[in-house]
Design a protein that fits this description.
Length: 149
């Protein structure tokens, strides 16, 4: 529909094709990032730059304790949410969030003075939890670390 409208307005077909390739290429790049998940995000309380109180869709991924959120529809804008901790994990309420399967998972993240809610499909719960999947074991060692004897 958009392509037809642009063509009627006289936009060159090469420009339309280039734009489509860039948008689909960006989506492919974002979805192929390690541990990326599709979901929705909103601010439950407080204020976080780039996020609204209404659910907005996109893709998220964790880099240490920072949630990188790529906003839809074009996925060109990223919002960084530096999480101070996980406040709550719960199943979504009936009709709270749509298009994320039958029983999406919602987590509440503390970020400075604000709280963000992030939702994802039930099968993406481990990706959604990111660094909060399991408590850190102080005795756990990386398998490639040298042993001391």
């Amino acid at each position: 529909m958009l392509i037809a409208l642009l063509a009627v307005l006289g936009v060159d077909l090469v420009v339309i094709v280039f734009y489509a390739v860039v948008v689909y290429g960006r989506k492919r790049w974002v979805t192929k990032q390690p541990d990326a998940f599709r979901g929705a995000i909103r601010v439950a309380s407080g204020e976080i730059d780039g996020l609204r109180p209404k659910w907005s869709r996109g893709y998220g991924r964790w880099v240490r304790d920072i949630l990188i959120w790529s906003k839809r529809p074009f996925l060109f804008r990223n919002t960084l949410v530096p999480a101070d901790g996980l406040d709550q994990q719960r199943p979504a309420r009936q009709d709270e969030i749509k298009r994320l399967g039958k029983q999406p998972t919602v987590i509440r993240l503390k970020a400075d003075d604000a709280i963000a809610e992030v939702a994802a499909k039930e099968e993406d719960t481990a990706l959604l939890l990111g660094p909060y999947r399991e408590p850190l074991d102080p005795d756990a060692r990386h398998p490639a670390a040298p042993t001391t004897t």
